[in-house]
Here is the input.
Amino acid sequence: MAFEYSGDGALDYFPCRYGKSKLLFRGPRRDLTRPFVAAMGGSETYGKFVLDPWPNLLEERLNFPVVNFGYLNAGIDVFSAEPQVADLSREAELSIVQLLGAPNMSNRFYAVHPRRNDRFLRASNLMRAVFNDVDFTEFNFTRHMLSTLQDYAPERYESLVAELRISWVARMKALLEKFEGRKILLWLTEYRAPLNRDPLGAEPLLVTAEMVNEIAPMADALVKVDPSVMARSAGTVGMSFAPLEEPAAQAMPGPLVHQEVAEALAPVVAKLL
Here is the structure.
């Protein structure tokens, strides 16, 4: 696998759709009439800024097709609302489900965009009552909104976090019930360099071990990947991005992290195939 930096900075992700789905996954489009493993997740699984994301590397190790159904900026809502996802899990020999952060999903406090789950749409009446001194019209993204509330009203912010965690567990259980066949949960922990860590916490945001343990029995296996110091410290080495995209690239896992994910998954997937 090659990790050269492309001269013009931009990668061609060959975005494609499957069936009647409105979601654009990373391509090139694969043949789903033959046996395959489904890799479902967010921007990390999609492999933003990375030439060979972990589904590609896993396929190479297994010598078995691994189809990338990672979706940019996805939260649980994207996969819960898309009927094609359940169909894909039914067709796959095995589904690998990346655990996504808790903020990017609609809940009792706020609503997010149905496909761009990182986009904050509106605050509920409950949210406006709890944070009655906050103007929510200034927020477009969930991270910005949560970061502001964490700094401005930390005690009230904790009540929001509690709601998000409860909602995450319930939503994940409902999602896993939709998936047919064998399932592996991928728990990719903090992958950013120490200097780039988010004040909101480690990835996946606001997800605790207790939450993961509650849903783990619904899958055939749980693979936790704690990226090494070397992989995290590599920063954007080997990533391809335009100059203005560097801050975004710094927030994404680099090639070494993707290698470690594939290495951790390979023996577990091989046993279940």
